[in-house]
Amino acid sequence: MEFETKYISAHIKLSEFKGKSFKTEVVFEHHMLIWFISGETKIVQADDSHIFTAGDIFLIPRNKITTVISQPSNGLPHKAVAMHLTTEKLKDFYSRHKAIGRTKPLETIRIFSNHPLLESCMASLIPYFDLGHDLPSDLAGIKIDEAISILRAIDNTMDGLLANFEEPGKLDLSDFMERHFMFNMTLDRFSYLTGRSLATFRRDFKKIYNTTPQKWLTEKRLNLAHYQIKEKQRKPNDVYIETGFENLSHFSYAFKSFFGYPPNALLGK
Fold first, then answer.
1. Which residue in 21, 42, 189, 218 has the fewest CB atoms around it within 10 Å?
2. Entry's Gene3D superfamilies (predicted)?
3. Residue 69: phi, psi to the nearest 5?
4. Topology (CATH level 3) of domain 3-162
5. According to the CATH classification, is domain 173-266 in 1.10.10.60?
């Protein structure tokens, strides 16, 4: 079995992956607090990317398009504890604790690697994953409260970030698409994250680009891949994932159909 996941609750899990690598593109509904035990993960968002390894602790913001590429490292599987800081839980927490500072969206990943308080909190969860239904029903809530309290203690901007419960508003469509076209998301997701219905998204897109979203996305991704291979001399196998294609064979076919030659033809030129 390549994947194994154990739960303390629906919002606290221990995941282990023993295969070669896997890639997913997601928009997390909740903030995700991650403690990395072993393996390696590359996380790519519109404005930055990070590589995380054993011991790293970080917070991924909700409602941000994120590419996650994970693999084993140093002979050990990809293994991590993830805690969902749900809107419901955060609203409950801040009904009991006054938020300090102005609320604002959490735009980028926050890194707390090797912080002793957070590491102790996350490591204390490990013994509970094998107990299953024998756990006290309120344990998960207590541990999430503990994690939120530690985040507030070590970062005085956390209240302003975690206490923001706004949903995506209507954004500048052109700016958003130019920054996020390389993420392989559905049009439903693109429309939601720009604050539009799918019908309004299609209509606004047509006004700006005078083409369909599908055609525009494919051409933008292929041109980015062409640049990465020709100018940066990166291998097609390393490029297709980061430019929004699901697999290498589909990427190679689309590339040759669009440019008239296969991606490998650019290497060494």
1. 21
2. Homeodomain-like (1.10.10.60)
3. -120, 110
4. Jelly Rolls (2.60.120)
5. yes
